[in-house]
């Protein structure tokens, strides 16, 4: 366990000076954004090594005793749900690498907030799904997003540095055969890597009764090699798809990251998450909890709010609530990727929780 530098009474006093506890009140920031979505990273480990996310070697993993336990995650999640969080999304790293994943799902799915039971979603590379999906569904998982950037074997092996396309395809087949809907497939569009495959990826998703969502590549790679001039933009993605289909915008996006279009009048849809060229920060309702207990109010924030002293130092629910409010109160209006002074966060996407 991490050594505490500030005893709980002093930490509580410091937090109290900052924000008052209000368990049960909505988490509203300075710009009126009400927070309803908590992304919970369960581990920084992954079975793949996607080039745009993790280095091939030299990862410094979080030590096991720094990873939140199932009890600690549940405590935070309960307070968050009381404060109006309605969706938990499990992510990582690869959430299915966590040995107690079915129990994590069972515990979190049982949580109710003021508006009723929470929604429990997961973002995964799908590799372990054939093995565990029935148990996850039985435990209360309600939605799945599976990441797949290419359906070509050689390309997959190059991009993920692992020859595991067949495992991912089996995971997607298992998800398609399950009752979990809507099923979403995520693909990061990358120039010279998979930008000739955009139509094929959408057709693949449709064949699996899934919605493909293209993600603009963000500056979150471990190697800090992201280049705005090279990224494939929302406009380029839409232009490529429009060569094959008629796309009609679906209204009523709300706080969702993806804009959606029906394909040839529907029922299938395709989405684009244009975090870089069309940021949606004004409607952001998301908070993040890293696997080592840090609250973050943005993927790109350079500061974190440490729940470990609260969780391991005898703090109560009001202390967790204060930390959530402190994190929300400090949220900036936008991610500022385009600002000249933008700094890429020190953690890679696998350690933040995508
Ligand atoms: N292992 C799980 C998976 O593969 O979905 C969950 C974690 S992964 C970090 C979550 C999502 O983040 C994936 O869809 C991945 O493609 C996306 N991602 C990672 N790095 C990214 C980057 N630099 N830009 C955009 N998306 C990224």
Commentary on this structure:
This protein is of the alpha/beta class. The protein is 30% helix and 18% strand. The chain is built from 11 helices and 14 strands. A 12-stranded mixed sheet has the order 9-10-11-8-7-6-5-2-1-12-13-14. Strands 3-4 form a two-stranded antiparallel ribbon. Helix 7 links the parallel strand 7 (183-189) and strand 8. The site of S-adenosylmethionine has 20 residues, from strand 5, strand 7 and helix 11.
Q: Into which percentage range does the β-strand content fall?
A: 15-25%
Strand order, largest beta sheet:
9-10-11-8-7-6-5-2-1-12-13-14
The ordered H/E elements are: HEHEHEEEHEHHEHEHEEEEEEHHH
How many beta-strand elements?
Answer: 14
Q: What molecules are bound to this protein?
A: S-adenosylmethionine
Helicity level, as a percent range?
A: 25-40%
Q: Describe the biggest sheet?
A: 12 strands, mixed
